[in-house]
Amino acid sequence: MPTPIATIANLTATGDVIIGPGALTTMVKGLPVACMGDAVAGVFCVAGVITMTTAINILAKGRPTANIGSLVTGVSMLGIPVSTAVLVCPNVNEIV
C-alpha cells in the first residue's frame, strides 16, 4: 500500500527529527525529500540513520526515498541501540 513520502524535518515515532542531507534537488512542498542513509537526531535517538524503506524503486539522487514506516536505527544517549520508524509526515500529500 502506498504511503506518503518523508521530507527533512519530519518526525519518527519517538519524536526524533530527520535532519538530512536529503535529496536537495528533489523537493516536496518546499522541503528536500528524505532518503535512505539520511541522519536522524533527537532525544531518544541521538545518532540515527534511515536504514530501510518500502519505496525501494522510487529514487532521489540515486537513493531510495523514505516514507511513513521507513526504519530508523541508531543509538540512545546511553549507547543503547534504538529502532524506530518514520511516523509523521504532516507537510506532504505525495504518495509513493
Percent helix: under 10%
Count every beta strand, where a strand is a DSSP E run of 2 or more residues: 10
Q: How would a crystallographer describe the biggest sheet?
A: 6 strands, antiparallel
Could you tell me the strand content as a percent range? 35-45%
Strand order of the largest sheet: 1-10-9-6-5-2
Q: What is the overall number of helices?
A: 0
Description:
It is a single chain. This protein is an all-beta fold and 96 residues long. 0% of the residues lie in helices and 43% in strands. The chain has a six-stranded antiparallel β-sheet, with no helix packed on it. It has a two-stranded antiparallel ribbon with strand order 3-4. The chain has a two-stranded antiparallel sheet with strand order 7-8. It has one domain. It is built from no helices and ten strands. The mean pLDDT is 87.
Protein topology:
Blueprint: E1 11-12, E2 17-20, E3 23-28, E4 31-33, E5 39-41, E6 47-52, E7 59-60, E8 63-64, E9 71-75, E10 81-88
Antiparallel strand pairs: 1-10, 2-5, 3-4, 5-6, 6-9, 7-8, 9-10
Any key phrases for this structure?
96 residues, mainly beta, 43% strand
Q: In a nutshell, what does this entry contain?
A:
It contains no helices and ten strands. With 96 residues, the protein is mostly beta strands.
